[in-house]
Write a structure and sequence with these properties.
By secondary structure, the protein is of the alpha+beta class. The protein has 6 helices and 4 strands, in the order βααααβββαα. Strands 1, 2, 3 and 4 form a 4-stranded antiparallel β-sheet that branches.
Length: 331
């Protein structure tokens, strides 16, 4: 009569299975997060490319209107004997260049709209969002301390996976495998004169020690060496990405500050243009300046306003770029 049996194998590699699965799950989650961040960044950049293109079209329209007015004024002077043919031709060429630049700006705007539509799946857009206010952001040192984004975390996981793979390979190649087998049962005879019962319990333990890893240039030794090299490569990749991120953060930080400084200079230029327009307006009201002088001063103010909006767009995009780079708020 057999009661039952059991057998099992013990290996040092078994204890790493759960850790391996956990690292794989974390790696998949980091990949997903990284993909979302990339898409969001691409959409943001495409969006502000549309904003910048719209502002460029507006600027080119002003330039074309100004060139048109200058050309008409030059023709009028020519007909009155106060301008040469060369001056008229030069004014006409300037107008042609302005019209060509406006056409190019329109084409660029449509291209940027098509690119954004391709990313978000729609072709019609509501009013553009408000640009971010010019403000102080955290210091560069503080931002550098925060430089630990999804890419870094993914490479940190890759390093852990490489280290785990090396540990598992090492244990598989060098550690013994223990197999245990046990069974139990009873046997016997029964007669009118005699009864015997025999215990048939047995236990066996075997130890398997791999020798391949101890042999020079064996497949196990080569495989173990490859795993060790993979760890070194993962460490180098992580360190390189950290250094790259530090450089990118510094460049992005400089771009934000440069855009901010340019906005401040353009605002001073706008104030001067507005002051000049007031003077020209007063001069025109007094009959001392022409209507062309007045419209020219007005267009200068409008052009300055568009330049400020365009530079604020650059600032806003630079701020978003820095924020996406660090994947956190930076103000």
């Amino acid at each position: 009569y057999s009661i039952g049996g059991i057998s099992f194998t013990l290996s040092s590699a078994d204890k790493y299975t759960n850790e391996e699965q956990e690292l794989a799950a974390l790696s998949a989650q980091q990949t997903y997060t990284s993909t979302l961040n990339t898409v969001e960044s691409q959409v943001t950049q495409a969006y502000f490319s549309v904003v910048s293109a719209k502002l460029n079209v507006a600027s080119q329209k002003l330039a074309t209107e100004s060139a048109q007015a200058s050309y008409e004024s030059m023709v009028e002077k020519y007909e009155g004997g106060r301008a040469t043919t060369m001056e008229v031709n030069q004014a006409k060429l300037t107008l042609y260049d302005a019209e060509l630049a406006l056409e190019t700006a329109d084409q660029t705007l449509q291209t940027q709209i098509d690119d954004l539509s391709l990313l978000i799946g729609i072709s019609e857009f509501d009013e553009l969002d408000a640009l971010l206010e010019i403000k102080e952001i955290k210091s560069l040192d503080s931002l550098l301390e925060m430089a630990n984004n999804t890419s870094i975390k993914s490479l940190e996981l890759a390093l852990k996976q490489a280290q785990l793979a090396y540990t598992m390979e090492k244990n598989t190649a060098l550690a013994p495998t223990i197999s245990v087998s046990a069974s139990t049962g009873l046997s016997g005879t029964l007669s009118s004169s005699n009864a015997t019962i025999k215990d048939n319990t047995s236990l066996s333990v075997s130890v398997s020690l791999p020798l391949d890893a101890y042999l020079s240039n064996s497949s196990s030794q080569v495989s173990l060496k490859n795993k060790e090299i993979a760890v070194t490569i993962a460490q180098n990749n992580l360190e390189a990405e950290r250094q790259s991120l530090q450089i990118q953060v510094k460049k992005a930080y400089q771009a934000v500050n440069q855009a901010k400084a340019t906005v401040e200079k353009l605002e001073k230029h706008l104030q001067l243009a507005q002051d000049q327009q007031e003077l020209v307006q007063a001069s025109y009201d007094a009959g001392l300046s022409t209507y062309n002088d007045l419209t020219s001063s007005i267009k200068t103010v409008q052009s300055s306003e568009i330049s400020i909006l365009n530079q604020k767009t650059t600032y806003t995009q630079a701020l978003y770029d820095l924020s996406y780079l660090l994947e956190t708020e930076i103000a």
